[in-house]
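Your task
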Amino acid sequence: MKITVKKGALRDSTTDAIVVVSFEDEPKPEGTIRDVDAACDGQISSLITNGIIRGKLYETSVVTTGGVIGPSVVIVLGLGKKGDFSRDKLRGGFSKAAQKVRELNLKTFATSINDGHAGLSLEVTVRTVVEGVMLGLYEFTPFKTVDRVEMKTVNEFVIMGTKLPTVKKIRTMADKGEKISRAVYYTRDLVATPSNEMTPTILAQRAEDVASKRNIKVDILNDAAMKKLGMNALLGVSRGSSEAPKMIVMEYRGADTTESPIVLVGKGITFDSGGISIKPSAGMEDMKDDMAGGAAVIGILASAADLGLPVNVIGVIPATENLPGGSAYKPGDVLKSMSGKTVEVISTDAEGRLILIDAFTYAGRYNPAALIDLATLTGACVIALGDLIVGMMGNDNELKNRIREASEATGERVWELPLPEEYEELIKSDVADYKNVGGRSAGAITAGIFLSKFIGDYPWVHLDIAGPALLSKSGPYIPKGATGIGVRLIVELLENWVKRK
């Protein structure tokens, strides 16, 4: 879909439809909606007076214009009560409006933004609207072959402004919103792709494709290189699969080379059967999403480069399958990690933390200003926080607060879980330094504690995205399936990081 910015009044748009907003506690049309209502002979205000259009949150009322203005349809988007309005509701609202346009099989639509909505700045409003429209229209269809010609698509979204200086600002922010949204699209595609089409080798090739079009350097470590470095935890997990493991390292240098980078580590299990500790068959098909953290890191690096952020970012993605082959690692095995510390394997289904610890040690060579890992790590986190909230743990309050701020702006919600010293006993092993599972209780927390034992002397935050990585039902701007969680959150963090230098 094309995003276009034009100067002019919304009523004069040549698109198939136009979108205006209405609040539940605003009985009379104000601003753009009043102008459009007047051009439509008061149809909208009459429907509001009669209680047919109520302005309820995500309500999309269709008003046909009868040819009195160019667009054949006006969609009146309800945003609820002004007192309850938020950036995320604006994002969700324009997602619903865009989906209504598609449902009506219309190809083009427009809206007008001359000021911010209900306390939001013009810049924030534009970016949020673009995100809502694009993220809400996402569909994953490359493997659909039946009735493809029946699929409905929207070709163009137009944002109109009445003043030239405003139009210039709109164009800048719309471009940012589009670039970030396309990074989310790419991440969703990676996660949604079935595992036979998304092996570690293919994931590495996708990272190389992203880098080749941008100011990103990429290095792919094969199993021989990993063995030389002593990455026996990662290699142990990979042994059951005939697919070769890869360590994907991406470098974006947007700042002076002397500046310490922010290092992002993404779990890249392209399929997780659980290994010898095999998972139940019901729902195992969704385990293609176990590389969602790695996919997010690729999307974040792409977005940082596209936006030209003046910050250095390193992405480290350990990628492998976890299968129960004849050479697979087993419960009771002891693995010596790259750090030199040893781990007793209690469950081969706790493999994510094993590949991450070797990635952490490798990442330490960059002297990180901060290290953030994104991983579909534990089912326990889903039990604790559900499908919509990311579990956050870490050793640095300032970094955690920065992530909270980014969470508020993006709607990608995080909730902190503690790392109590008393629970460290749960991961102590009788035969090795640590064991990879601490028992049933506090499973997400003990996983975080395990990871913390392989972190150097730098700020670190662990984001457990197991819940929101792949959803079984749609949200306002997140269609069912892969969500691309983490991309907008961390890009927002990086943008704010630059501002605080």
